[in-house]
């Protein structure tokens, strides 16, 4: 089974259309479930999700009673997931669920040592300032972490559940999954995917917010990479 984990915060007008797209992309293609994690929304997002539960048997809904952030929502969704492999999508509708089968095909044809297939937004539909901020951040991150990943901020990813849960957890860790997977000894692959303009609502992040938290996070991840140790382990036989 594939588990599609979608974190949401104040996305009342985006939940129903995105769920319909996920169902259209996966029903009849692979067994799947959708695990929506509402991060203490202040709008009608929880009510919309509750109304959709009887409509879509694949849908499950978790809710944070206090806001925990996107990384916490993703992690809690993955912990609750029943599938061996996890696909993630941002809840704003900018990721295209039709790309999930593309990621699955890449996995099926890939190296078993590859545990993360990361979406790569080749043609982004964000504002000019957001694209430039992302380009600068990616360049700095690539120089410091050397993760050979052109776009770590893309929300659509496919990864093995067990490998993800073995990673060190911290706030904003979802932005550094390729580097963290590589630190753990796994391979990662970037796959070109579609990107769309936000259909409704406003972003929960600003460029300044991303920059301020990014500086501290980069230093922390770089420290984790420097301190990593992966000795080969063998068990003695009787």
TrEMBL record:
Q: Which GO terms describe its biological process?
A: lipopolysaccharide biosynthetic process
Enzyme class (EC, first level): transferase
Specify the superkingdom: Bacteria
Q: What is its EC number?
A: 2.4.1.83
Q: Which InterPro entries match?
A: Glyco_trans_2-like, Glycosyltransferase_2, Nucleotide-diphossugar_trans
Give the stretches traversing the membrane: none
Per the record, its GO cellular-component terms are:
plasma membrane
Q: Can you tell me which residues the record assigns to a coiled coil?
A: none
Give the keywords, sorted.
Cell membrane, Glycosyltransferase, Lipopolysaccharide biosynthesis, Membrane, Transferase, Transmembrane, Transmembrane helix
Q: Which residues form the Glycosyltransferase 2-like domain?
A: 3-164
A Pfam family found in this protein is Glycos_transf_2
Return one GO MF term: undecaprenyl-phosphate 4-deoxy-4-formamido-L-arabinose transferase activity
* UniProt xrefs under PANTHER family: UNDECAPRENYL-PHOSPHATE 4-DEOXY-4-FORMAMIDO-L-ARABINOSE TRANSFERASE (PTHR48090:SF3), UNDECAPRENYL-PHOSPHATE 4-DEOXY-4-FORMAMIDO-L-ARABINOSE TRANSFERASE-RELATED (PTHR48090)
* Name of the protein described by the UniProt record: Dolichol-phosphate mannosyltransferase
* Organism encoding this protein: Chiayiivirga flava
């Amino acid at each position: 089974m594939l588990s599609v984990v979608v974190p949401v915060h104040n996305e009342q007008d985006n939940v129903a259309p995105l769920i319909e797209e996920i169902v259209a992309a996966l029903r009849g293609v692979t067994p799947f479930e959708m695990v929506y994690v509402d991060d203490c929304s202040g709008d009608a997002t929880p009510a919309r999700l509750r109304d959709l539960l009887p409509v879509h048997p694949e849908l499950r809904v978790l809710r944070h009673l206090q806001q925990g952030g996107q990384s916490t929502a993703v992690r809690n969704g993955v912990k609750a997931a029943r599938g061996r492999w996890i696909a993630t999508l941002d809840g704003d509708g900018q990721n295209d669920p039709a790309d999930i089968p593309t990621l699955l095909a890449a996995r099926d044809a890939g190296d078993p040592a590859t545990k993360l297939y990361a979406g790569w937004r080749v043609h982004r539909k964000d504002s000019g300032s957001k694209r430039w901020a992302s380009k600068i951040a990616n360049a700095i991150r690539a120089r410091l972490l050397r993760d050979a990943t052109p776009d770590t901020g893309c929300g659509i990813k496919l990864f093995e559940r067990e490998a993800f849960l073995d990673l060190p957890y911290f706030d904003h860790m979802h932005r550094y999954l390729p580097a963290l997977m590589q630190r753990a000894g796994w391979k990662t692959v970037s796959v070109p995917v579609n990107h769309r303009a936000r259909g409704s609502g406003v972003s929960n992040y600003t460029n300044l917010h991303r920059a301020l938290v990014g500086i501290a996070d980069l230093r922390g991840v770089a420290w984790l990479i420097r301190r990593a140790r992966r000795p080969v382990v063998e068990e003695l036989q009787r």
